[in-house]
Amino acid sequence: MSDFLFAPPSPPSVPIARGGLYAVHRIYCVGRNYAEHAREMGHDGREPPFFFAKPADAVIVGGASTPYPPQTADLHPEVELVVAIGQGGEDIAVGSALEHVYGYAVGLDMTRRDLQAAAKKAGRPWAMAKGFDHSAPMSSIEPVTQIGHPDKGCITLSVNGAPQQRGDLADQIWGVAETIAYLSQFVGLRAGDLIMTGTPAGVGPVARGDVLEAEIAGVGSLRTIIV
Known about the structure:
InterPro entries: Fumarylacetoacetase-like_C, Fumarylacetoacetase_C_sf. With 227 residues, the chain is α+β, with helices and mostly antiparallel strands. The chain has a single domain (13-209), classed as Fumarylacetoacetate hydrolase, domain 2 (Alpha-Beta Complex). The chain has helices spanning 35-40, 113-122, 127-130, 144-147, 176-183, and strands at residues 13-15, 21-23, 26-30, 51-54, 59-60, 75-76, 79-85, 101-108, 111-112, 136-137, 142-143, 154-159, 162-168, 193-196, 211-216, 220-225. It has a six-stranded mixed sheet. A hairpin with a 3-residue loop joins strand 15 (211-216) and strand 16 (220-225).
């Protein structure tokens, strides 16, 4: 007989490109990690990285549709490289940080921009602007053993076939190894943690019926429809 009040839900997961499932533990996101995007959001310079979180069950996989969330009139997708941690640790050194990576995926950080702007103005957390239901569409995960560690290459998002965002992984202010090392000073990373590494410039609103297509060279692609 179980001591649980109700049956625990199945763990959220992301498909692995070569077969199997990656169980998601936590989702961390890096803010303003591309210089041009930082400038378009009103910031400049190489600040220390900062992080916010999404619920593990915010992931949408397999090309499923993305519901337009309530309480917003300004929904923005942000294309991002997603790092899948395969080996945990604390106070990880930059030089060994990539040893903790299992693989990479393409992700969209869905953002209720109007709520985020209001939270910034009031000095309040971004939780409801970033960490809502269905806020993390993702592609399957490509293992490092197959693609290595991408540190350059085109990262794009198109909406209804029209380009919206375009950048290069080489333009990241903080690289993957630096990001992992810095984050591990604050939390003990664990296998199953995903890190969304920031978005290039060009963010803008989408509406119901829009088709989003994201791609990162050497990593993969992602397609979803806003419904």
